[in-house]
Design goal:
The structure is a homodimer.
Chain A (H helix, E strand, L loop, with lengths): L9 H15 L43 E9 L4 H19 L30 E6 L42 E7 L2 H15 L3 E10 L27 H7 L14 E10 L1 H5 L3 H8 L36 H5 L10 E2 L2 E11 L7 E15 L6 H11 L6 E11 L11 H5 L2
Antiparallel strand pairs in A: 1-3, 1-4, 2-3, 5-8, 5-9, 6-8, 7-8
Helix pairs in contact in A: 2-3
Chain lengths: 429, 429
């Protein structure tokens, strides 16, 4: 991607702020001062806090989890294939720029148009921004119609998610023709990115639903705890193990060309009855999860990453890791080896009015908070669907959680400079 | 406050995690291992990232702005004064503990009760957590009744906020008998704190409304930008200037004893029509705000902290800082010297369905995002009310913002160890 010499970038904003602006006599309509920066590239801060946008795989999948996310699902408002292609081209260019710490569009230094960027991320660190795109079922058939002539390209693995036991998915948090997830170590940077893409969509695509989330790690790193107070992600395959990732996460030669190096993403908005959970005894919580709360170790073990002994029984012959505990039901060895890469965020959307359906029939406010569960896999049929089918029926945790939204999205392979996201899909027909 | 030697603290969690747990043979019900930590105090990380809870003033007012907030307004469900006192005692103790990086309640190492803390902040940095309490009008008279015998103590300065021009306050984001604001450099730490206080309230008080927010600053510091892309807070009095704070923020001898060293807080949930704002020209945005977008300087000036020249006119005799610009209307010199300390956070609550009321009558999703405006002042009559009365009528920015919620809360003076929040109010009658 060629760089406009007049680009106003977040990375070089610091240089501007530190005196160049004053020297150049920045006045009214200050964007016109940006051309003085080009010559000062050597003074820029190191390219830290940048995640590469271009590559074999999309970023934001095996990227170490950032502290914040803003997820948006979109409906396509057009029936024209070219509109979709143009949108994806615009989104690709803008996303690559923003991941590089720049404004969404090049700044024309003779223009006073504000619409190239909302500027709320100006001066902030790029914060390891990643922007990950996915294609929903509506790209193939929508209202019974093959709008874009892509129906024949729908991958075999891209099945519809079944209605799982207990599902209470609401329309306003479910589905979408396209998904875009921004992740960054700053909530303002993540929201900024989505906001620019929404503006660029210009009524070709429109937001269907969004979800902000956060994931806080101990200083120095370690597995984040979710709002249940338990470490979440301990059992994940290692994102550093390329072989594991190739086996579990990335679509290989079995998939269509455009999905190779891509992955299928399942999102579930899981509301947690925190008030209820908080009243449980510690021991009961641990039995439910199958792990110790503080250490994160599987029950009967000492350290977080100790392997669970699912065969171990206590003196009465009961499993140490209970039969219907979350850990046991999710374990690969109980699911024909099925594994997924979880990349969960907590969410916290305020409070709703709720009336209890049990004595003493209290009514009042309860948190609308929980987990924006997200997972990646090579094939959802042998990944999330395989694992969750059983869990949705038996997991003790279901007393406290309700799946209220989500979707399945095919995240195409990565994009090389000059291409646009999903280009190989549109070229294949 | 005495320290329980068996306290499981977030600060010493790192020591635990780094091997002591294993040495002590942490097993099922891992909290029983915490007693081994007491002897290891010398190994604890430095007391960084801690804001003092006790003091002449409540923390969270002149504290440098943290990156995240979780605000909660509560309704009191009791008519008993003693219930309120007991609640405030519990809240004080728990808040002081959490601000010190500890669990909300002391852990009894013989118990398996989970209810002492939800543990989701376990292992996280204290993140400069502050918890700031305020008293709403319902503490004095509620439904025409002096529930707690405090009506005579209502400070003269604590007037009801008038209905300002353009106000569209909704019940579900307005008012409350008590307010509690947690601020921290981690959203999970802020939410954790409120969640513990809600549990401790145990139906004596119940959440009325909540609001999460964020404020992102450039690396190395500087004024945060709000979602309009402009720096927000430049014109604030300096929190480091004790004399200014005494003059503008802190209640002095004119107030009742319990409010001395305290401050009045106005909260306003201000929804911003971001989609609309983003379509405006840069020059128009700057005229609206009265500042340059990139530098933050007043129009006609060069640097962010240059003093605005409100008398300056262009060659046609028009004010450089426009007559109805946000900056001009808010300026102290146009408000008989009135000043407030703003402590704003951006909020981002997803999207709502909206139907435009103008051609082409588009309908679709719009952001429910904007500003959780918060300000502190010695007297709201000569602070926010004075300043905002005119702004609500004339500010050009009103085309883009709607006040949809908020409240006025009297934040009592700080608490000394052994006291509870607002104790002097309850002792004064």
């Amino acid at each position: 991607m060629s760089k406009c010499p007049f680009d106003f970038t977040r990375r070089n904003f610091l240089a501007l702020a530190s005196g160049i602006a004053a020297a150049a006599g920045v006045g009214y309509g200050a964007r016109t001062a940006v051309d003085v920066i080009a010559a000062k590239k050597s003074e820029l801060p190191a390219r830290q806090a940048l995640e590469p946008f271009w590559g074999k795989h999309q970023s934001g999948i095996v990227t170490p989890v950032q502290t914040h996310t803003y997820f948006a699902a979109f409906d396509l408002l057009t029936d024209k294939r070219d509109d979709v292609i143009k949108l994806l081209q615009k989104w690709t260019t803008a996303s690559a720029r923003m991941a590089d710490g720049q404004s969404a569009e090049p700044v024309d230094n003779t223009s006073s148009d504000a619409s190239v960027d909302s500027d709320d991320a100006l001066g902030l660190s790029p914060s390891r921004l990643t922007i990950t795109f996915g294609f929903g079922a509506g790209l193939y058939i929508s209202d019974g119609k093959d709008r874009f002539g892509l129906a024949a390209e729908r991958p075999e693995a891209f099945v519809d998610l079944p209605k799982f036991n207990g599902d209470q998915l609401v329309e306003t948090h479910t589905g979408g023709d396209l998904s875009v997830q921004a992740c960054a170590d700053d909530p303002q940077v993540a929201f900024h990115a989505i906001r620019q893409l929404v503006r660029l969509a210009d009524y070709i695509a429109q937001i269907r639903w969004t979800q902000a989330g956060f994931a806080s790690s101990p200083p120095g790193g370690g597995t984040p705890r979710n709002l249940m107070g338990f470490k979440d992600g301990t059992g994940n395959p290692s994102i550093k193990d390329q072989e594991e990732m190739d086996k579990i996460i990335w679509v290989g030669n079995e998939g269509p060309d455009w999905m190779r190096g891509g992955s299928y993403m399942v999102a579930r908005r899981i509301r947690i009855a925190l008030e209820h959970w908080d009243r449980m005894k510690l021991a009961f919580q641990e039995q439910t999860v199958g792990r110790q709360k503080i250490s994160g170790a599987p029950l009967g073990k000492v350290n977080e990453f100790d392997k669970a002994d699912l065969a171990a029984v206590d003196k009465d012959g009961n499993y140490i890791v209970p039969e219907n505990s979350h850990l046991r039901l999710a374990a690969a060895e109980n699911n024909d080896g099925a594994q997924i890469l979880r990349r969960p965020y907590s969410y916290n959307d305020g409070v709703n009015f709720t009336a209890e359906r049990w004595p003493p029939w209290r009514q009042g406010m309860e948190y609308d908070a929980g987990l924006l569960f997200m997972c990646y896999q090579r094939d959802p049929r042998t990944g999330f669907i395989k694992i969750f089918d059983k869990m949705s029926k038996f997991d003790m945790m279901n007393q406290f959680v309700t799946h209220v939204g989500g979707g399945l999205f095919a995240c195409p392979g990565g994009t090389q400079e000059g291409e646009f996201i999903g280009q190989r899909l549109f070229q294949s027909t």
